[in-house]
Specification:
Elements (H helix, E strand, L loop, with lengths): L3 E7 L16 H24 L4 E5 L10 H16 L3 E5 L19 E3 L6 E7 L2 E8 L24 E7 L16 H5 L5 E5 L5 E5 L2 E4 L15 E8 L3 E7 L4 E9 L5 H14 L6 E9 L11 H15 L6 E10 L13 H12 L3 H9 L12 H24 L1
C-alpha cells in the first residue's frame, strides 16, 4: 500500500474579529473588512476540496475570543459540513483566545470533526481506506492561559502506524515578542520522533525546522498593519521518504505599508501625482488597506505639511480614486517622517538622558495617562476602546514629539 498523506495546516483564523481602530473607514470597505476572516475560511475550504486532501489541521484560535459568537460558530459548522460532503476530516484544538471554558453554548459539529477535548495531550487515529495511516496528537486550552511546557506529554504511541503528527498552540520559550503560552524549546520538539509539528499562536508564518518540519502557518487573515502581506495555510504532502510544503494565500484583504518620499521644491500638485502613481503600483488581485509613510527628504518641513487639513484632503482625493474598485485600495492611516527626526533609541546611545527617556517610553503603558480622559463624563461618550496597535501608535508619536522637542531645544 502506498503510504502517503496530504493535508492542510492552518491556525489562528480569529473568526469574527472586530477590527478595532478601523471604524472610521467607509462603510462599504469596513463591511468587507468585517467579513474578511470568514472569506479566508471559505477560501481554505475551497483549497482543501480542490486539492482533495485527506484532512485539515486547525491549531487553535479559530475564534477571536472565548465567547465564540453564534454567527462564527454556525459559519464554521457549515464549512465543516461542506468538507464532510467531500470526505475530508478536520482535527482541531482551541487556543488561548477561544478556550473551552469561555463558551457555554457550543454548536455541535458534524462527525468528520474531531476536537481535542481538554488540556491533556491525547491522540486520535486517522484511517485511510480503512487502514490506520496517522496518529494525530494535541490538546485544547480549557482556560485562557497555559504557562507550562506541554512537550513532555507528547509521546509516540503505536509506532506501527506510519505517520505521527503533533499539534501545539504555543510559542518558543525565548520568544519575547508575544505572550508566552505553552512554552517549548525547538530541540525538544525535533527530538520527539514526530513526522510533523503543526503549530499555532504566532501570526507570522515560519518554518522553525525542516527535518522534521516544525511549522507556524501564521494567521489566515491579517488584522492590522503589523500583520501585513499574504496570509494563509500550508498544503503538506507527506510520504515515508519526503515532505513537501506549499504556502497558499487565503486572505480576503491585504494590509500593506507604502512609503512615499517628498523632496525639496515639490508642491502639493506634484505630490498628488507621486501618490497616485505609487498607489497604482499597489494594485493586485486583493483589496488593500494602506498605511502610508511620507518620508520628508527636506531639511525642514515641506511646504504644506503644517496644514493638516490640506494633507487630509489630498489623502481623501486619492482614496476616492481607488476605493470603489473591486480590488480597492484605501489609505486608512498616514504618518510623516521628517528628515531631522530621530526615532530610534540607538540614535541616542551617547546621550544618557535621552537614551533613558527612550527606554522608559518604549516600555511604559499609556493606560494610566488615558484613564482621566476615558472617565470624563462627556468625553467618554465619544471615545472607542483603543486597540493595542492604536496604543502603540500613540506612544510612538508621543516619543517622536518629545524627543524632537528636546533636540530642537538643544539646537537653540
Amino acid at each position: 500500500m502506498n503510504k502517503n498523506l496530504t493535508f492542510i495546516h492552518a491556525a489562528d483564523l480569529h473568526l469574527d474579529s472586530p477590527f478595532k481602530g478601523l471604524a472610521n473607514i467607509p462603510e462599504r470597505i469596513f463591511s468587507d473588512v468585517l467579513k474578511s476572516t470568514f472569506v479566508a475560511l471559505d477560501n481554505l475550504i475551497t483549497v482543501a476540496v480542490e486539492r482533495d486532501v485527506d484532512f485539515i489541521l486547525l491549531a487553535g484560535d479559530l475564534f477571536d475570543n472565548e465567547r465564540k459568537s453564534l454567527k462564527a460558530q454556525i459559519h464554521l459548522r457549515n464549512a465543516f459540513e461542506r468538507l464532510k460532503h467531500h470526505n475530508i476530516n478536520v482535527y482541531l484544538s482551541y487556543g488561548n483566545h477561544d478556550f473551552i471554558n469561555g463558551n457555554a453554548h457550543q454548536i455541535k459539529y458534524p462527525d468528520n470533526v474531531y476536537c481535542f477535548p481538554d488540556e491533556n495531550v491525547s491522540h486520535v487515529v486517522y484511517k485511510k481506506n480503512d487502514h490506520p495511516m496517522a496518529k494525530i496528537y494535541g490538546f485544547s486550552y480549557e482556560n485562557q492561559a497555559i504557562k507550562i511546557n506541554k512537550t513532555p506529554e507528547f509521546k509516540l504511541a503505536d509506532e506501527t502506524i506510519p505517520f505521527h503528527i503533533a499539534m501545539l498552540h504555543g510559542s518558543l520559550a525565548s520568544n519575547t515578542d508575544h505572550d508566552t503560552y505553552a512554552p517549548f524549546q525547538l530541540s525538544e520538539l525535533t527530538s520527539k520522533g514526530f513526522d510533523y509539528w503543526a503549530l499555532g499562536h504566532i501570526h507570522q508564518r515560519d518554518i522553525l525546522s525542516q527535518s522534521p518540519p516544525v511549522v507556524y502557518p501564521g494567521n489566515t487573515q491579517g488584522r492590522h498593519r503589523k500583520e501585513s502581506g499574504a496570509k494563509g495555510c500550508y498544503y503538506v504532502k507527506l510520504s515515508e521518504t519526503n515532505v513537501d510544503l506549499s504556502f497558499i494565500p487565503l486572505q480576503s484583504i491585504l494590509f500593506n505599508t507604502v512609503k512615499v518620499a517628498i523632496f525639496d521644491n515639490q508642491d502639493i500638485n506634484q505630490f498628488e501625482l507621486i501618490l497616485k502613481t505609487e498607489m497604482e503600483k499597489q494594485l493586485t488581485n486583493s483589496p488593500q488597506l494602506i498605511y502610508l509613510i511620507i518620508e520628508n527628504k527636506n531639511e525642514e518641513d515641506f511646504s504644506f505639511s503644517n496644514d493638516a487639513g490640506l494633507l487630509d484632503d489630498l489623502i481623501e482625493v486619492v482614496n476616492d480614486l481607488f476605493k470603489d474598485q473591486k480590488n480597492w485600495l484605501y489609505i486608512y492611516r498616514y504618518t510623516v517622517l521628517n528628515k531631522r527626526q530621530k526615532t530610534s533609541q540607538d540614535s541616542f546611545e551617547h546621550d544618557y538622558f535621552i537614551g533613558e527617556l527612550a527606554t522608559q517610553l518604549t516600555h511604559s503603558s499609556i493606560d494610566d495617562y488615558l484613564n482621566d480622559l476615558y472617565q470624563h463624563r462627556q468625553a467618554r461618550k465619544y471615545l472607542n476602546n483603543l486597540s493595542l496597535e492604536s496604543k502603540e501608535d500613540i506612544r510612538n508619536e508621543a516619543y517622536v514629539l518629545l524627543v524632537n522637542g528636546l533636540l530642537d531645544g538643544q539646537r537653540e
